[in-house]
Design brief:
By secondary structure, the protein is of the alpha/beta class. It has 24 helices and 10 strands. It is globular and about 90 Å long. It is 41% helix and 8% strand. The termini are far apart. The strands form 3 sheets. The chain has a 5-stranded parallel sheet with strand order 7-8-6-9-10.
């Protein structure tokens, strides 16, 4: 077969090549051809015949020859590649659908981790993915009953690192530098004739001004809009007019229900708000001190505009209007009586959630936050009263998991998440102090279950560095459930509330419990006995210290 390199883009079979209009058969001469003249082309020899390099060729041969040649080989490789991709896809789909449980696949579950190696290079502002990359699992496999001795070693390591060290309380000037606007809005003295902390603030708007136009709670949350629509209608009627100026009454809460989540705070809130002398914010949990003032709506969604303190104070305007009515009454103005209405706030994150500090306060010491929520609350309200409702931390964690987990909930899944969280916590305490790990935003977001929320004594000791012990009432959910009348009387006495009629007391103490476990969660049953034993071991030293601080062995939770 003869081929033309110089002028034909098709290789023509047999003698048809001689009919090429640019070539003159086998005697073609490059030097004489007007097309090829002067070109120094490299000859290529194929089938003992001369060809030119870098030509574009299309081979027209018999169909069978083509299939058995290079094209056949290429198609075979393509089929193999496609087959391999299909098999891989099927394996991955099978893995996802089965949840990688019970060892049905060739690869182990990603939740079955072993001990994590420590690394002092971990930074507090690492991303979630960086955190999990840092704590690499070992080859130790954790599976339900058989894994108890292995996890016990992890817990022993954590226990050996526990130290309850008193934190240094920041001075007032340091706090002022961090939140100058807040200190410019809230005064350091309140009205003397009101039990609740309130003060008058000059209002410079007119009757056409919307005082809530920029309120972030009204803008970003639908549940607040009805409240603020009402407040707009009555706002002008509740202004105090004096010497040609307009004043509005501003109030902060007299008491805070500060924790903990899944410990009965909602039930306590619902009963306490039935008392005629108690009012609450427009919503049970504004989460302003812990989240909204930093611009956090959901931490996973990043930061939004920070909610100013004025937006937080707006939430108490309904209660402030009632207090103002009492203050302007004849009994208070002429007879010198006090306003006894008090306001409460019940954000269950207040006690423990300091996750935002790393993004705003830079001068940390060894990964510990230099300022905590309680530092600022105490700076404005040194006489504030605090109520804490606690629960067996083992049961609290399982309830927390059932409430917040979105899918695939089961006792086995909870066990795996507990195992992973323990190992992440161990990896942290090997490098940092207990306080640094408890307030570590990256670690807390990385743990599949919120182990840290049950470390009650760590948070309580930090609150006791700024508040006196007689300003904090600590209750147990177990006591509240078994003798509600007793616990509610303790709360009434702590808040110095007035007496109730039998009908009022019955309404408060005999109403159904609030925010109980959902029926679909009850059907999942209790946690595995092995999981309970593991969590008992983990929380034991913290419960022991808590019982010592409160002088009450009931907080050991031995009988639950």
């Amino acid at each position: 077969m003869r081929y033309c390199i110089n002028c034909c883009i098709h290789l023509l079979p047999n003698d048809l090549h001689r009919q090429c209009f640019r070539c003159r058969g086998p005697d073609h001469n490059n030097q004489k051809c007007p097309v090829c003249k002067g070109e120094n082309k490299i000859p290529l020899y194929t089938d003992s015949k001369q060809m030119k390099w870098l030509a574009v060729l299309e081979v027209r041969t018999d169909h069978c020859e083509s299939w058995n040649g290079f094209f056949c080989l290429r198609k075979g490789k393509l089929c193999s590649l496609m087959f391999g991709l299909i098999v891989m896809t099927l394996v991955m789909v099978s893995y996802i659908l089965t949840g990688a449980k019970h060892g049905l696949l060739l690869i182990p579950s990603p939740f079955h981790y072993g001990a994590f190696a420590s690394n002092p290079s971990l930074m507090d502002n690492e991303s979630l993915s960086d955190m999990k990359d840092h704590y690499q699992p070992s080859k130790m496999n954790i599976s339900y009953v058989k894994d108890y001795p292995s996890i016990k070693l992890i817990i022993d390591t954590i226990t050996s690192k526990i130290e309850f060290i008193t934190r240094q309380r920041p001075d007032l000037e340091e706090l002022r530098k961090q939140e100058p606007h807040m200190f410019s809005v809230i005064p350091n003295k309140f009205l003397p004739n009101s039990k609740n902390p309130c003060w008058y603030e000059e209002y410079r708007g007119n009757t056409t001004t919307d005082p809530y136009a920029t309120n972030s709670y009204a803008l970003y949350s639908k549940r607040f809009r009805v409240v603020f629509d009402y407040l707009r209608k009555v706002f002008w009627n509740h202004l105090y007019h004096y010497k040609g100026k307009h004043y509005r009454l501003r109030c902060l809460p007299h008491f805070y229900i500060i924790g903990q989540p899944k410990c009965g705070t909602t039930d306590l809130y619902d009963r306490l708000r039935l008392h005629p002398e108690v009012r609450f914010s427009a919503s049970k949990e504004p989460h302003w001190w812990t989240r909204k003032r930093f611009g956090i709506i959901r931490l996973r969604d990043g930061f939004h505009d920070r909610y100013p303190v004025e937006d937080y104070l707006d939430l108490f305007d309904l209660a402030a209007h009632q207090i103002q009515s009492v203050l302007q009454s004849e009994a208070v103005r002429e007879r010198g009586r006090m306003n006894n209405i008090i306001i409460g706030e019940a954000s269950a994150s207040t006690m423990w959630d300091n996750n935002a500090w790393i993004f705003f306060y830079d001068n940390s010491t060894d990964g510990e936050p230099p300022f905590l929520i309680q530092d600022f609350i105490h700076a404005f309200q040194p006489n504030a009263k605090l109520i804490i409702m606690l629960r067996d931390p083992v049961e609290r964690l399982y309830s927390d998991y059932l409430y917040f987990a979105s899918a695939n909930k089961s006792a086995e899944d909870f066990h795996e998440k507990v195992a992973e969280s323990l190992q992440l916590f161990e990896g942290c305490v090997l490098d940092y102090s207990l306080r640094a790990c408890v307030y570590n935003n990256t670690l807390n977001n990385a743990m599949p279950v919120r182990l840290q929320v049950g470390l009650y004594v760590v948070y309580l000791l930090d609150w006791l560095t700024v508040f006196n012990k007689d300003q904090i009432l600590v209750l147990r959910l177990e006591d509240h459930a078994s003798n509600m009348r007793y616990t509610m009387h303790k709360v009434f006495q702590f808040l110095d509330l007035g007496p109730l009629s039998e009908k009022q007391e019955a309404l408060i103490t005999k109403s159904p419990a609030s925010n109980t476990r959902r029926p679909e969660d009850r059907s999942l049953g209790p946690m595995l006995p092995t999981t309970k034993a593991i969590l008992r071991d983990f929380y034991r030293p913290f419960n022991t210290k808590l019982a010592q601080v409160l002088f009450d062995d009931a907080f050991l939770w031995k009988r639950t």
